[in-house]
TrEMBL record:
Cited function: Required for the export of heme to the periplasm for the biogenesis of c-type cytochromes.
One Pfam family it belongs to: CcmD
Cellular compartments per GO CC: plasma membrane
Protein name in UniProt: Heme exporter protein D
Primary residence: membrane
Family annotation (InterPro entries): Haem_export_protD_CcmD
Keyword Glycoprotein carried by entry: no
UniProt keyword terms in alphabetical order: Cell inner membrane, Cell membrane, Cytochrome c-type biogenesis, Membrane, Transmembrane, Transmembrane helix, Transport
Amino acid sequence: MNHTFYIAMSYGITAVTVLCLIAWTWLDGRARRRELAGLEASGIRRRSAKPTEVSQ
């Protein structure tokens, strides 16, 4: 038996692992954006956001 099977399996496992990490990062980013939108809708703002002017 030559090393073709071993090399093909190594590339296959690596490709599946990288695709899983990409999917996980993408899904987590979507969840964080939804979480931020919910917080902003409830009135909580990010510190980096410019403060709104308060009229007295």
